[in-house]
Design goal:
By secondary structure, this protein is of the alpha/beta class. It is built from 11 helices and 8 strands. It has a single domain, classed as TIM Barrel. Helix content is 50%, strand content 17%. The chain has an 8-stranded parallel barrel, surrounded by 7 helices.
Length: 247
């Protein structure tokens, strides 16, 4: 039997919809609780510098109410370190962040920022958080993650999801090779960004992966079939891919 592949559900864009009109609905906490009941193993939320979706109060409510791990996506800034240290979520995932981008556009350059990230990761770990780095499927970045003391990496799957034909196959091979390399050097390897029903299977079948984090597609699909059924279908596709890989 293949190892169980965890599903983390990102609820950022429930907050995006709420913020488009103001007020309290739809409620990201309610979405997180529904996601857990539908099969999510954890919840991810990204508190951006400009608070375009998740807000500080959302993070506080999630921390107070959730019964599963909270993965706090954040930029490596002093402001976010202070918030994370106060809230102490299960995990802190460091991501690159540019104010003008619509969504995270690529991986963190760990290799180019080893001294600063080593100190930053150490401070988060000392506060009890499991540090993760969102990176490209590049062995150089994975080696750098070990050098800065991060036990977990999340591979950026956006390029794979956007590719077509042979290019998608090459990107999948790159993800698989990076997953093998990461596991071989002692990292726990996760993956996420842009995954949908038609792209999740081949990624879920990579045996070294321990967790997938999926958000935007599930929130969009919830418009058509409901959040619970969308998450349940994603869970089914992930489990089926793992079962085929093990057969």
């Amino acid at each position: 039997m293949a190892a169980y592949l965890r599903l983390g559900v990102n609820i950022d864009h429930v907050a995006t919809i709420r913020n488009a009109r103001g007020g309290a609905a739809p409620d990201p906490l309610r979405a997180a609780q529904l996601a857990v009941s539908a099969g999510a193993d954890g919840i991810t939320a990204h508190l951006r510098e400009d608070r375009r979706h998740i807000r500080d109060a959302d993070m506080e409510r999630l921390m107070a109410a959730l019964t599963v791990p909270l993965n706090f996506e954040m930029a490596a800034t002093a402001e976010m370190a202070a918030i994370a240290t106060r809230l102490r979520p299960h995990a802190a995932c460091l991501v690159p962040e540019k104010r003008e981008e619509r969504t995270t556009e690529g991986g963190l350059d760990v290799a180019g920022n080893i001294p600063a990230l080593r100190d930053y990761c150490a401070s988060l770990a000392a506060a009890g958080m499991r540090v993760s780095l969102f990176v490209e499927a590049d062995p150089r970045q994975l080696d750098a993650a070990v050098a800065v003391g991060a036990p977990v990496v999340e591979l950026h799957t956006g390029t794979y999801c956007e590719a077509e034909g042979e290019a998608r196959g090459r990107e999948l091979a790159r993800l698989a090779a990076a997953s093998r390399h990461g596991a071989a050097i002692g990292l726990e390897v996760h993956a996420g960004h842009g995954l949908a029903f038609d792209t999740v299977g081949p990624v879920a079948a990579i045996p070294e992966l321990a967790e997938l984090n999926i958000g935007h597609f599930l929130i969009g699909e919830a418009v058509f079939q409901g959040l619970g059924p969308a998450i349940a279908e994603m869970r089914r596709l992930m489990d089926a891919a793992r079962a085929r890989q093990a057969a």
